[in-house]
Amino acid sequence: MTLDTLTLGQRPKGRTALSARWILAYRDGGHHLLEDGEIVIDKDRVIHVGQAFEGEVAHRIDLGEVLISPGLIDLDALSDLDTTVLGVDCGPAWAKGRVWPQSYVERGPYEMYKPEELAFQKRFAFAQLLCNGITSALPIASLFYREWGETVAEFEAAADAAGELGLRVWLGPAYRSGGMVCTAPGMLEPRFDEARGLSGLDDALAFIDARQGQHEGLVQGMLAPDRVETCTEALLIRTMDAARDHDVPVRLHMAQGQMERDTVMALHGTTAPAWLAGFGALSDRLIAPHATWATEADLRLYAEHGVTVAHCPLVFARSGAMLRSFGKLRRMGIRIGMGTDTAPPDMVLNMAVGVMMARMAGDSIDEAAPQHLFDAATLAGAEALRRPDLGRIAPGAKADIAIFDMSDPLIAPRIDPVRTLVLGATGRVTRAVFVDGRLSMRDGEVTGMDMAAARRRAQAQFDGLRAKYPERTLGHPPEDEIFPPSYPGF
Length: 490
Hints:
Layout: E1 16-27, E2 30-42, E3 45-50, E4 59-62, E5 66-70, E6 72-78, H1 84-87, E7 100-101, H2 102-107, H3 115-131, E8 134-140, H4 152-165, E9 168-171, E10 178-184, E11 187-192, H5 194-211, E12 219-221, H6 233-246, E13 250-251, H7 258-268, H8 272-278, E14 286-287, H9 296-305, E15 308-311, H10 313-317, H11 326-331, E16 335-338, H12 347-360, H13 370-384, E17 401-405, H14 417-424, E18 430-435, E19 438-442, E20 445-446, H15 451-467, H16 479-482
Parallel strand pairs: 1-4, 1-5, 6-8, 7-10, 8-9, 9-12, 13-14, 15-16
Antiparallel strand pairs: 1-2, 2-3, 5-17, 10-11, 17-18, 18-19, 19-20
């Protein structure tokens, strides 16, 4: 039998045995490479890992030269059409529509996408995650093009999209108490509306109460206050209290850039992690992308309070920034999970860039080995989410697995499969994904979606958003001045 005999988007009926050249199996507290082994899935769980299963099965599929891996866990998963790529080579941010100009604020900020466009972009992004071997995701989207925060309506659509496509998600609309306004070239000023932020938190909690556990548990809740410089002390205190009461994680971007450092220092006289520590808002529930600007003292606070760093090396490497360093944080005992936070949401490529940037930052070969990044993308993400049934292939674990094609002709010759995957491939060799025992992706196809048509729609929607950038850029320059081409036209 082959994977083609299974129905896309459904759990196979009866026990399903999958054999492969390599299986990344969990035992004795860590991953181990099992050669020429077999796993058996029954409903939503793995019931066997090892040599050939002697019990009865309904399906036995030999996958051949593949690596069966735990599904990857993305703690900062892009869930919109990536606007950060516009600014990588087109800066500074204040001149490129990434910060609201005063004229735009006076006009009145507005939603640049229609509700159906917001729903589509999440569905499209979720499909892209599955195509890259990601089975668990904490979605992230930009608020730069929003009227203020994210809405409950779009997240209700997101929850249904995750259930229909078969992606495990932690969801909660992002909220904030403030934003940055550009008053003159290079002059950024924070503006706050605390009541609006607290109202956004209330909406997020109502969403969690209504949607937590839906779609057979694929949908879970999280609290997602926006970037730390857009939050007030009262908002963060209430957020952390609510996270404890509702038993959900919190994700907050901090220690990630110069603008944040300058703003928080001006407002509070210290760094963001130190500010949060001062009113008890650091905890092991907190997932904090990206730590690229964390000081030594900040990192000690992370270690002391059990904060998880969501490491997204690709998006920062594009602009010449890096975590300093992966090995150092591990030595300090800081949990490091992985995120993508950009397009494409390629976790394999992120692991590769993570290895390279760590070594450039001074980590030894052993400190920045591919398997350490793989642990971050699986085991550490599961620990951050308090889900010991994820991020591993073991009896009793959830049947969330990714199947990577190691016979791809462009990655020959092959060595150790994990090193080969991380250092010699990308997520495009993801052949199939099971989530909760359900075949959610096979050969680039996701149930209920025409991927080619979705790709065309995504491009048209992105082009429409880009055309609106002059309205929200200081001085309102034309689009081709904001985003000049790499080469002049012929």
